[in-house]
Specification:
This protein has nine helices and eight strands. By secondary structure, it is of the alpha/beta class. The strands form two sheets. Strands 2-6-1-7-8 form a five-stranded parallel sheet, with helices on both faces. A three-stranded antiparallel sheet has the order 3-4-5, covered by helices on one side. The radius of gyration is 17 Å and the shape is globular. The relative contact order is 0.22. It has one domain: 3-Layer(aba) Sandwich (Rossmann fold).
Length: 224
């Protein structure tokens, strides 16, 4: 009898490696990977492109009804489309990094994206990563994981992901990560939190493969 595939909620702070590790684990297990952070980044990119101030909640909310987001899996990653435009590389810029926490704190944006995320996860066999997956998006997920690492390790990882890394220093990225931690932890709407039932993985002393293997072990042990 085959095991029942589950919904896996992966939360953690910026730069913890949630996306890359969740993506690799999903590929290994044949699960669907949903990068919720990329969805928030896509909305942020659209807001900035429209010339809307990220702190103007009413103006941001007004953009949402006409916004079409699509996540298209590829062989080793995924592509993100906003109204048909491929924005996969555009959502990883420092400009988007600096505004995404403000956008993610807006209730209308969270409601807009959470509804889509729950629909995607309804059939099981999915891994969602973000900051409020276990607490808000999928409170009944069969497995909840909190992936974290030191600020230094997370800043280095985020710097390596930045397409325009020549124009930004590691110290600048570290300051950005610390500011993001502060905003994510203290925001009113769906703050970053490690729920009591989550299993914590600190990747400071683990390689990428070791972290992924630990996650695979947890998932296969939880499948019914």
């Amino acid at each position: 009898m085959s095991k029942q595939r589950i919904a896996v909620a992966v939360d953690g702070p910026a730069g913890a490696g949630k996306s890359s590790i969740s993506k690799a684990v999903a590929k290994q297990l044949g699960y669907l990977y949903i990068d919720t952070g990329a969805m928030y980044r896509a909305v942020t990119w659209a807001v900035l492109k429209a010339g809307v101030n990220p702190t103007d909640e009413a103006a941001v909310a007004a953009l949402l009804p006409d916004l079409s987001l699509r996540m298209e899996p590829t062989e080793d990653a995924f592509k993100v489309f906003v109204n048909g435009e491929d924005v996969t590389s555009l959502i990883r810029t420092q400009e988007v990094n600096g505004a995404v926490s403000q956008i993610a704190a807006i209730k209308a944006v969270r409601d807009f994206l959470v509804a889509q995320q729950r629909a995607m996860a309804s059939a099981g066999g999915v891994i969602l990563d973000g900051r409020d997956i276990g607490s808000v998006v999928l409170p009944n997920a069969e497995l909840k994981i909190y992936l974290t690492a030191s600020v230094e390790a997370r800043a280095k990882r985020r710097w390596l992901e930045t397409p325009d890394k020549e124009s930004v220093s590691l110290d600048t990225i570290k300051e950005s990560v610390m500011a993001r931690d502060e905003m994510d932890t203290n925001r009113k709407e769906s703050p970053l939190v490690c729920v009591p039932e989550a299993i914590v993985i600190n990747s400071d002393n683990l390689s990428f493969d070791e972290t992924a293997a630990r996650m695979v072990q947890l998932i296969t042990a939880t499948e019914k």
